């Protein structure tokens, strides 16, 4: 088997996917059967510079080069060979943010990531003008806020892109972006599969008094659909990626995508009436719609799949961080007793014990707000556990309340889709760290969304695998299948994972919990106001 894989690598048939996550850059090499054969990674952290979250250009390239070097070392160790060429490459990254360049291709201000929330005035004004929910983190919000602030650089912009678009541009020379990532810059017109011309015109009217040198349409990346060629690795790009000099230029690249799109691909959730929930440090749900929503909702972002279908996205800033903090407390107690600690066992015991609690958590409520939560209207957060004297306070209910809290905000956003917009979904797939203990969070999410939830083993491969699959779709789609059929037939081949359906008791219990949760939000607001 290793000799077969070695020949695949040496013949240039392996395909590379790289994703810039918020804490890790990951590379996955796959074979023609779409199975991972080698991996590499690099750990990094954002920095707070002049009040804004950023990653420096040096950190981006040092991280990418170290990640690729780690992949090369992994290939050498496993297969005793070197990567000289590849079948295709895909680049993905966290969506949104602001990377603005001048005529000399120099970055004008440090990269402003999705995490920044200084764009409130711009996002509100754009949402009103567009009659479309424009979130704080979208690129157009960052651009308009810079204009409203009269920042000195705004007249010198010649190109505006995302992190994935930037890395792709530097590797290929092409100023392009996959439609999924582009949909987090500016709204997409479903008819043209391009930026909305109506909203481009509205933006031009808004900024006309500034008399800037550029027009919006001229500074944005060209929008591409999955399967379209997005250029080739240049000699300069090959040297930038592989500092050892082994990798040859000429490799085709697929359109660069955002992490939401690669998550959809990795969970086989690009077909209409499917969805996925990613649950880790933060969480988000993506439901692929058959048509646009009837009206804009502040809680729901409208983006697209990598092949352009409309997607309703509920993004939550908080998910597992507070839950993990409580687990660490129990770990400390176990250590005090002198009992050896196996964290998988600690998580497994506590999570499974939660299922023995009351369906409504006995009246207990938890707020997992390490940071602010836009869906519930809080700019800052304070982790809180709330109970009254008459509530059923025991370990099972305590753990269940904290697990409910991890997907509580997600439920509030999705209730709009299912209850008000009457959206129909055939399959929702869960992935991320919350689902590591089998069956528990899956059952709780099923109750929260009142929908069957599937979890696949392959979902753990993550976004780097997802963008590798999009690169494979570019070069290995001999049947000219659409993306959804390609994933069904060539990647997942009928594997829909293990499904758990909600029980009426769990659904009723979660509904009771969330009503208590919403009624208690003034407690959270008071905690934030206290500045404690």
TrEMBL record:
Pfam families: FGGY_C (PF02782), FGGY_N (PF00370). Residues 15-241 form the Carbohydrate kinase FGGY N-terminal domain. Keywords: Kinase, Transferase. CDD domains: ASKHA_NBD_FGGY_BaXK-like (cd07809). Its EC number is 2.7.1.-. It is an enzyme of class 2 (transferase). One of its GO terms (molecular function) is kinase activity. Coiled coil: none annotated. Residues 276-473 form the Carbohydrate kinase FGGY C-terminal domain. InterPro entries: ATPase_NBD, FGGY_C, FGGY_Carb_Kinase, FGGY_N. It comes from the Bacteria. The keyword Transferase applies. Belongs to the FGGY kinase family. This is FGGY-family carbohydrate kinase.
């Amino acid at each position: 088997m290793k000799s077969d894989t070695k020949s695949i690598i040496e013949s240039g048939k392996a395909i590379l996917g790289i994703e810039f996550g918020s804490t890790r850059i990951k590379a996955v090499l796959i074979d023609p059967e779409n199975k991972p054969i080698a991996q590499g990674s690099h750990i990094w952290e954002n920095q707070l510079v002049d009040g804004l979250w950023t990653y420096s250009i040096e950190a981006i390239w040092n991280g990418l080069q170290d990640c690729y070097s780690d992949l090369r070392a992994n290939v050498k160790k496993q297969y005793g060979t070197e990567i000289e060429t590849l079948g295709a490459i895909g680049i993905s990254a966290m969506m949104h943010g602001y990377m603005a360049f001048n005529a000399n291709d120099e970055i004008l201000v440090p990269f402003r990531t999705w995490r920044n929330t200084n764009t409130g005035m711009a996002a509100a004004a754009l949402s009103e003008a567009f009659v479309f929910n424009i979130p704080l983190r979208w690129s157009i919000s960052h651009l308009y806020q810079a204009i409203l602030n009269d920042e000195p650089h705004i007249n010198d912009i010649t190109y505006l892109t995302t992190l994935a678009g930037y890395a792709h541009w530097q590797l290929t020379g092409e100023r392009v972006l996959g439609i999924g990532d582009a949909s987090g810059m500016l709204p997409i017109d479903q008819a043209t599969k391009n930026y909305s011309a109506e909203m481009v015109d509205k933006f031009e009217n808004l900024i006309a008094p500034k008399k800037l040198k550029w027009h919006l349409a001229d500074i944005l990346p060209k929008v591409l659909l999955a399967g379209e060629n997005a250029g080739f690795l240049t000699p300069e790009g090959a040297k930038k990626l592989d500092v050892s000099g082994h990798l040859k230029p000429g490799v085709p690249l697929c359109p660069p995508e955002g992490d939401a799109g690669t998550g959809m691909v990795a969970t086989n959730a690009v077909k209409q009436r499917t969805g996925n929930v990613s649950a880790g440090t933060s969480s988000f749900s993506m439901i692929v719609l058959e048509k646009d929503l009837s009206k804009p909702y502040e809680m729901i972002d409208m983006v697209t799949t990598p092949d352009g279908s409309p997607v309703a996205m509920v993004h939550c800033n908080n998910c597992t961080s507070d839950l993990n903090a409580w687990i660490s407390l129990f770990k400390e107690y176990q250590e005090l007793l002198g009992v050896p600690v196996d964290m998988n066992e600690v998580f497994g015991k506590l999570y499974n014990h939660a299922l023995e609690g009351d369906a409504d958590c006995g009246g207990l409520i938890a707020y997992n707000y390490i940071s602010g939560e836009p869906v519930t209207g809080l700019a800052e957060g304070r982790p809180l556990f709330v109970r009254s004297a008459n509530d059923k306070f025991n370990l099972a209910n305590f753990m269940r309340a904290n697990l409910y809290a991890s997907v509580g905000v997600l439920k509030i956003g999705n209730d709009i889709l299912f209850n008000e917009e009457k959206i129909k979904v055939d399959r929702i797939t869960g992935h991320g760290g919350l689902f590591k203990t089998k069956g528990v969070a899956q059952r709780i999410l099923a109750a929260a969304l009142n929908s069957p939830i599937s979890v696949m083993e392959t979902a753990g491969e993550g976004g780097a695998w997802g963008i590798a699959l999009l690169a494979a779709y570019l070069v290995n789609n001999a049947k000219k299948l659409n993306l959804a059929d390609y994933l069904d037939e060539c990647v997942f081949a009928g594997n829909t994972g293990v499904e758990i359906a909600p029980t009426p008791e769990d659904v009723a219990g979660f509904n009771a919990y969330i009503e208590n949760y919403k009624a208690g939000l003034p407690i959270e607001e008071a905690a934030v106001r206290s500045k404690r």
